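Action item from last week, closing it out:
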Amino acid sequence: MEYFIGLLVASAVAGLAAGGFGRDRSFAPTILIVVAHYYVLFAIMGGSNRALVIESIVASGFLLSALFGGWLAWELARRSHRFMNEASLEKPGSRDARS
């Protein structure tokens, strides 16, 4: 069973790397996904159903942070940049400090 899980994880990583995740910044989430699946793999090898459930929850957290963490950081940076630009623009009707 553990060989099947290992083969499945290796295939998933290879598929993600070939599908565009293997480029610069996006390969780190792929590695995070692999680490998450090791938790599940070792729980299966241990044979405990309770450990499998707990480690699956931990792996889900890793998976979600890998998939949405980069997008969230980009979105927060974009919005804060936009807010700072709008705040620094001169408002209509206000006095210009340069004149």
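Closing note: The first helix runs from residue 2 to 21.
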